[in-house]
Structure formats: structure tokens, C-alpha cells
Amino acid sequence: MRALGAILLVVACGGVGFGWTLRQKQRIALLEALRAAVQGIGTELTQRGTPLPEILEGEARRSDLLAEGLSQLAKELRRGKPVVQAAAPLLEALSGRWELPQAAQTMEELCQRLGRYDAPTQGDACVRAAARLEQIGEEQQRVLLEKGRLYHTVPLALGAMAALVIW
Length: 167
Fold this sequence. Notes:
Elements: H1 2-48, H2 52-62, H3 67-78, H4 83-86, H5 88-95, H6 101-113, H7 119-166
Helix pairs in contact: 1-2, 1-7, 2-3, 5-6, 6-7
């Protein structure tokens, strides 16, 4: 019975480490989806002059990760809310649940420019925001490469040590 408990303890601790790695991979995927959406918004604004709510709905259809947030943002814009106010839930999710405050700040700066200036100015803001999001994604990728093994090894080692103590 003790052997089974020790095995379960090691497996549970290993699961925590793999969970940390998975969470980091999800952050990277979210940043990539956000970067692609921002690039798409910039392209639509500068090349086609499409209204922002329509652009957001199109980007929502392209991205599974951002579909709900972008659709809600488009609805709020159609109701007449300013972009920054309409984007508040998305910005809160980035800084809170996803623990990406730099991405939230970048998106907030972009939202302050969307809908307020001419299309080329908004497009330039999108280019800058996409570049910054790419940089943040590269930083998160570096964290994953540097700490990925650590995320797996330390919980497994702690679980093994706790199992030995219990044994």
C-alpha cells in the first residue's frame, strides 16, 4: 500500500510540472494568435478600410483561441463603446488569468489608437503592437526552453523525496 502511495505521489508531482509546461505553451500559442490577429487588423485597416467591428468578427472566425473575446469586442463596439472600454475584459484576462502583463499593456496602447486616428496611423500602431507581441512571445519561448526541464525535474524530484520520506 505504501508503494502505491509513493508512486501516486511521484506521478502527481510530475503532473504539476507538466502542467506548468503546458501553461507556458498555452501562453505562447495565445501570443501568436494575438499577434496574427493584430497583423490582420492592421492589414484590413490600411489596405481595405474595413470597419473595425467587421475586422474583429473576421479575426474571431480565424482564431479558435481568440474567437470569444474578439466576437464580444466587436459586439461592444457596435453598441458604441470606445475600443479601450470594450476591450477591458480581454485586457484583464491577459494580465490576470494568462499572467501576461506586457501583452496586456501592448494591447491597451493599441486599443487607445484604434478607431481614433486615420487608417495609416492605426495600421502603424498595429505593426508596432504585432512586433512587440512577437518579442514577448520569443521571451516566453526562451523561458520555456530555459525552465522547461526544470518544470519537469524539480516536481518529480520533490515527489520522489517525499515518497522516500513516507516509505
